[in-house]
Amino acid sequence: MTTDPGPTSKPHAAHADRFATLTFEREVAAPVSVLWQAWTAPAARAVWAAPTPSVAVEFLGADTRVGGREVSLCKVEGQPDILCEGGWMVLQPEQRSVSHEVVSREGAAQSAALVTADFEAAGERSRVAVTVQLASLAHNMAADFRSSFGAGLDNLSGVAGRTMVLQRVIKAPRTVVWGAWMDAETLPQWWGPQGFSCRTKRIDLRAGGEWVFDMIGPDGTVFPNHHVYGEVRHEDRLGYTLLWGENGPKHADAWASFEDIGDTTKVTLGMVMSTTAEFQQAMGFGAVELGMQTLGKLARFVGAE
Question: 113 has which bridge partners?
Answer without folding.
Answer: 101, 134
